[in-house]
Automatic annotation (TrEMBL):
Name of the protein in question: Glycerate kinase
Catalytic function, reaction form: (R)-glycerate + ATP = (2R)-3-phosphoglycerate + ADP + H(+)
Phylogenetic placement of the source organism: Eukaryota, Metazoa, Ecdysozoa, Arthropoda, Crustacea
A cellular component annotation (GO) from this entry: cytoplasm
Domain of life: Eukaryota
Ranges for domain MOFRL: 366-479
One annotated GO molecular function: ATP binding
Broad class of enzyme this protein falls into: transferase
Amino acid sequence: MMNEIRLIYKAAVDAVKPSFLVNQAIRCTKAENVVTIQEEYEIEVDKNCHVIGFGKAVLAMALQMDTIIGHHTMKGIISIPHGVISQYNIPDQFLKRYTIYEGAVNNIPDEDSLKATKDIEEMVSQLKESDVLFVLISGGGSALLASPVDDLTLDDKQKTIQLLSKSGANIQELNSVRKKLSQIKGGKLAQLSYPATTVALILSDVIGSPLDVIASGPTVKNKDPQNQGWNIIHKYQLESQLPAKVAKCLSSTSPRNDISFNHVRNYLIGSNLTALQAAEAHATQIGFVFTAILSDHIQGEAKEIGKNFAQIAQTVAQMMLAKCDDQHKHMEALSVAADNLNVDPRFCCTLERLIRGCCNTRRNLCLIGGGETTVSVRGSGLGGRNQEMVLSYLVETAGDPVSSDELEVVFLSAGTDGIDGPTAAAGAVTCHGQFEEAQSQGLDPLSYLNNNDSYNFFHLFQQGNYHLITGPSGTNVMDIHILCFNWKQPKNVSL
């Protein structure tokens, strides 16, 4: 079943390929010089288009945009992660229109992303009412659109974000702080583009896809309370560790420049839910008769989420095998784990019916979830949130195995961008027996987990067979978690 679960993951990633999503969202009628966005908004264009972009997916987005409106594009500037250019064969015509910057190594703003942002600011500030600005936004955009407010240095901002990240701050918290420290995030890019018609095409990497959080909302009006950034610092008790200028900025209550946003339209063209629905469809296609999306709002500590998936795996396996002396007790355990994964409580009844159907017909089950977890770094190892989640699951199921002679259970967690933390892996996959196999190989899974060293564990274990090494995918809509239950000898039952 290892191959099948990898194919389900691949289907999810393929569904959110940037070029595919852009092609679905925008078309241009060349004869009439009209651009249509998501079949609802039309713009007349005549060699007056400008394109900017920032994020892990925007080179692919921009290349597709250029095939659609290149004949109307005057200039484009995109800011992308270091090393992305080498993954593409870029047409000469594209390079004549676009300036490409690479920066933000390890998703930390740097001098290269600062230079790209200054170039974007200069171009956007010169636009006229007759111009059209397309803004391409994807995951990683916050680090690639870096322009600290006047009194701050880039180093000040880097230190602040690193402190928050290591403390386990989630993306909403990180981006609230970033907005306060930036002169272009939190709607300030849209203010700069006024009065040009501004259209943002957004690929979400944030739970629930709130537009004001994705890439710190550069084209969306900032509604954060003035003191929100400082409250986040206080929550993680980082006041004494902040650079003095950052502390002053975050605690200030300077008035906002609340201009109209009537010239701006924001379009969400893809999200984690898009990927989850594609995974569900593919699982059904390859023989998982019973499939379900648990939640696209999974967040929290990766280690704890791994434990909750282990609890679900153990409980569901026992229910499928009809080893349920106390049905109420099992449903209670399932409900607690599901609640920790932000599963709608009403869905637990549906889940019980699915499990009962699998038990009665011996058909396979696939449960899918998505979101973005965090890791509070305590050790000195190398890892990422998905690998840590899978390692936590492996450790948690060691004493109470979920698989049996009748039923095989496999768990996968991976990022849709193909990059999990500062590693070359997208994630990992685990199944029954790995804990004992690792010990026989001289590896202690719990020690690696406690040292936040999930990458090296999966790299060494079984020569990396359970690592997911896909290479960068060109997209980023957070993470995919897949839990598959496969009968080893399915009963021939007609449904």
